[in-house]
Amino acid sequence: MNTHYSTSSHSSWPRQVKSFFVRAIKELFRSRVALFWSIGWPIGWYFLTMALFIEVPEQVPADQVETVLSSIKASNAISFGIFGAFTVSLVTFANNFTDDLEAKRYRKLRSLPVSPSADLTGRFLAGTLLGAVSFCSVLVAGYLHGASFNPRSSMSIPITAVALFLFCIIGMSIAVLLAVVVQKGEYLTAISNTVLMILYFITGFNGASPRMIPEGNRWIVNVLPNSLATRMQMYYMTDFSVEGTGLTPPPVPNGIEHFALLTGYAIVLWLGSVLVMRRMMYYGEGGE
Question: Are the CB atoms for 156 and 235 separated by under 8 Å?
Answer without folding.
Answer: no
